[in-house]
Amino acid sequence: MSSVPIEKYIGRRAEIIYQDSKGNFTKRRVSVYSVRNGKVRVLDWGKKSFRTLAKDRILSALPIVGRAV
Question: Which range marks the domain in which residue 49 is found?
Answer without folding.
Answer: 6-63
